[in-house]
Specification:
This protein has helices at residues 3-27, 30-46, 55-79, 104-111, 115-126, 131-138, 142-159, 167-183, 186-192, 217-230; strands spanning 193-202, 214-215, 238-244, 247-254, 258-267, 270-277. The chain is an alpha+beta fold. Helix 1 packs parallel to helix 3, helix 2 crosses helix 3 and helix 8 (167-183) packs antiparallel against helix 9 (186-192). The longest helix is centred in the N-terminal third of the chain and has 25 residues, at 3-27. The radius of gyration is 20 Å and the shape is elongated.
């Protein structure tokens, strides 16, 4: 490979984790993010790089535009998705990432934004891009991009937990929830769940899961008690304990060799949201996710 081609490949390789994170935030899918970044690499390889004065900005713009195009078809598919749609779960990879506080809860807040709002917010608030650059990326005026980011920021701030929980406390609650939910201990569950808790279980029509979110601690407690009764309180093997999308949780191997991830939103000592993913199409990349940071 010629020296300039080698330099271009090395530069892209160094930026790839950042580009994957951007695409994942935009799309909520590792597989789709990797496809987008691969397409960005092909465009980078063919581009007149002598005319590119800021390669990181150029590549971020390329990935963002590709994501915006992709979201047009992705949103149509999600309208017919069976059951709740959740972002693909990823494991925490370290505490040095500037956007580590974008938990699964906030990913879902991003999902409720328009594609342009999401892009403006991510590029400015998370990845530090100026509004002049964002305007070029989104083909909008800087003032319009500022408004897009401002609207998005209000939605995201409203979704942020009011009370933070330490990593140790969060994992202690996750362990207690695992024991109570798998044994069917309703009394223990009621001490762990917030009154307004919501449980999301995603199977994507591939694996059995509740088709609608479950609201309220009574309904959620009965749901897990019923599941425990079906398996006589047997506890599945735990494959992982720790952070999932910035939230305390665990990964288990359920009956029929079904891998299941459980992430818990904890506020003020109580579980306010439960996110369970059983769709195997969203769990194929779990062993490969060590480079994704939050």
């Amino acid at each position: 490979m010629p020296p300039l081609e080698t330099e271009a490949a090395d530069l892209f390789r160094s930026l790839r984790p950042r580009l994957i994170r951007l695409a994942y935030r935009m799309l909520g899918s590792i597989a789709e993010a990797e496809d987008i970044v691969q397409e960005a690499w092909l465009r980078w390889h063919k581009a007149d790089r002598s005319a590119v004065w800021d390669p990181p900005a150029y590549l971020s713009q390329t990935v963002t535009r590709l994501c915006l195009d992709h979201l047009k078809s992705a949103r149509v598919r999600r309208e017919t998705y069976i059951g709740p749609w959740l972002p693909e779960p990823v494991f925490d990879a370290g505490a040095d990432d500037p956007d580590e506080d974008l938990s699964l809860t906030l990913m879902m807040a991003l999902e409720r934004l328009s594609p342009l709002e999401r892009a403006a917010f991510l590029l400015h608030d998370v990845f530090g891009m100026g509004f002049d650059e964002i305007a070029t990326t989104l083909s909008r005026e800087p003032a319009a991009c500022r408004q897009l980011a401002s609207r998005a920021r209000k939605h995201v701030q409203a979704a942020r937990p009011r009370y933070s929980v330490s990593k140790d406390e969060g994992q202690r609650i996750a362990e207690a929830f695992f024991a109570a939910s798998r044994s069917g201990d309703v009394d223990a569950l009621k001490t762990l769940l917030a009154e307004t808790v919501v449980a999301y279980t995603e199977g994507g029509g591939v694996k059995i899961a509740a088709l609608n979110p479950l609201h309220g601690f009574r309904r959620v407690a009965r749901f897990f008690a019923g599941l425990a009764h079906k398996v006589n309180g047997a506890q599945p093997p735990v494959l992982y304990r720790g952070s999932i999308n910035g939230l305390p949780g665990f990964v288990t191997l359920e009956r029929g060799d079904v891998v299941e991830t459980t992430a818990l939103q904890v506020e003020d000592g109580r579980i306010t949201a439960i996110y369970i993913v059983r769709n195997p199409e969203k769990l194929r990349h779990l062993p490969q996710m060590s480079y994704i940071r939050y």
